[in-house]
Design a protein that fits this description.
Elements (H helix, E strand, L loop, with lengths): L2 H6 L4 E3 L5 H9 L3 H15 L1 H6 L3 E6 L4 E5 L4 E6 L4 E6 L5
Antiparallel strand pairs: 1-2, 2-3, 4-5
Helix pairs in contact: 2-3
């Protein structure tokens, strides 16, 4: 963990470079990565009309706490709507400090 993360108790996200994209999901989802990826795309498509219409590439981030984060590229924010809970949200796709 970096000194910055320790000093501020922040979780630091580091963008995964292009040459490591192919190994990123297998690292975090293991043998289930072939199922995991389309499930994420489908779930976002069900929550966002905008994403369902246009799709797109995703940006991968590794987190300083050992986790990961995925965000669709090309969206500063995205409107999400859940028909199950009747919730409408607009969220940033990339969080910053």
């Amino acid at each position: 963990m970096s000194a910055q993360a320790q000093d501020t108790n922040c979780i630091i996200a580091t963008k995964v470079p292009g040459n490591r994209r192919m190994s990123f999901l297998p690292k975090y989802a293991g043998k289930h990565f072939l199922r995991f990826e389309p499930m994420v795309f489908q779930a976002l498509g069900e929550l966002s009309d905008e994403y369902r219409r246009s799709g797109g590439m995703w940006v991968f981030y590794e987190l300083s706490n050992g986790g990961f984060y995925m965000a669709p590229r090309g969206y500063d924010e995205m409107a999400l709507c859940s028909s199950v809970s009747y919730t409408h949200l607009t969220l940033p796709t990339i969080c910053s400090v």
